[in-house]
């Protein structure tokens, strides 16, 4: 009887011993892993083989920074974002932070940044695509003349830094100071109108979106340019009606430079004191 009563205590001691053994083994494994990771990290940070260097014979650029996809964006702006990474380990480069900084460049719509071991950064830029020229109001320090830039479908103002030719419509009535959502809405309204009129768009030199619900277009005609108030719908029908009746209008009102087409089937000449955009 006494021998049987001691067995449960023996089993409990065995279980406790095993638990202690595995606890100690687990702690040793964790410490060993952390130590190994620390040594590995220290190696990646300090070893010169992983250093992103900028050679002296590469003026303004680095052989360890590869940038793809740039046509109109500023290459120097892109390189400047990575300037703080030169001279230190590739391991320390915060690629997501650098990507977010790239997205702050006006021409950059999207970007990817990747590490190519042992010592190279690869950047791929997806640039914004301009859809129109934009006539901006005169700046404070300007001589009173309008300023031209480019604009994309999302309302981002773009300024080309290299010589380039674009065959695009001109949009006015947009300001840099207004929210991006407002610029986007105005651009979409102008592009929607141009798409609606189809081939007739080739005769339109400028679209005024100051009031996106009441568009005004500068129409090229035989005698020059006429400003047409076309409202917010039935664009193609209203332009076709104007062209069909233009000869008669020209004979009756050769001095008319602004015409109101907002009433379907009717064309009204507006007095010369009204605003003439694009002049």
Provide the spatial order of strands within the biggest beta sheet.
6-5-4-7-8-9-10-11-12
Estimated radius of gyration: 34 Å
Strand count, sense and barrel status of the largest sheet are: 9 strands, mixed
Please report which band the strand proportion falls in: under 5%, 5-15%, 15-25%, 25-35%, 35-45% or over 45%.
Answer: 15-25%
Number of distinct beta strands: 12
Distance between the termini: 115 Å
CATH topology of the largest domain: Rossmann fold
Low-confidence stretches: 272-279
Report the order of strands and helices: HEHHEEEEEEHEEEHEE
Query: What CATH architecture label of the largest domain applies?
Result: 3-Layer(aba) Sandwich
Highest CATH level, the class of the largest domain: Alpha Beta
- Structurally, the number of domains stands at 3
- Level of helix content? 25-40%
SS-based class? alpha/beta
The coarse silhouette is: elongated
DSSP summary: helix tally? 5
Q: Can you tell me the CATH superfamily of the largest domain? A: Cell division protein FtsQ/DivIB
Query: Average pLDDT value?
Result: 85
Q: What is the quaternary state of this protein?
A: single chain
